[in-house]
């Protein structure tokens, strides 16, 4: 894997590294409704320091931990509307998708567009064999995105994640390379 964060383009999005001047915007968006509640690792409250640390660490996490995180920006305006990520396990050629979209940009196809770009990057550029994701079973919107991009639901892990003192069920979705190739 290259040590430099890539820039990915879709019809409506530019996925790229966040810049230091975007920390306040990131803080505001990450504190929006359902972000922390529906994600495994976004803290609440999301402080300015958290945003700055996230931005400052993007390149190093990519280089040392195989975690590719990119800001979702509208191509027409440059506006930051979310974050998309791909965590790669090089030993198994597996990638795990994650991310979130700001409240005012939801239900417009941006999550699926960003996830598709990362999925294509993972299979085409990184040579992944398998790519997947998971979501809380109550998060129907995320499940819909995964199905929309072609990931198949492989099942439910009951009580698999402790979130805010409650054991949550997790839905597991994935695709293997041959499925991706047949969709192209």
UniProtKB/TrEMBL annotation:
Keyword entries, A-Z? Acyltransferase, Transferase
Entry-linked CDD domains:
NAT_SF
Question: Which InterPro entries did the record assign?
Answer: Acyl_CoA_acyltransferase, GNAT_dom, N-acetyltransferase
Residue span(s) of domain N-acetyltransferase? 13-178
Q: Which domain of life is it from?
A: Bacteria
Q: Which SUPFAM superfamilies match?
A: Acyl-CoA N-acyltransferases (Nat)
Pfam families reported in the protein's UniProt record: Acetyltransf_3
Similarity remark: Belongs to the acetyltransferase family. RimJ subfamily.
Q: Which protein are we looking at?
A: GNAT family N-acetyltransferase
Organism encoding this protein: Pseudomonas azadiae
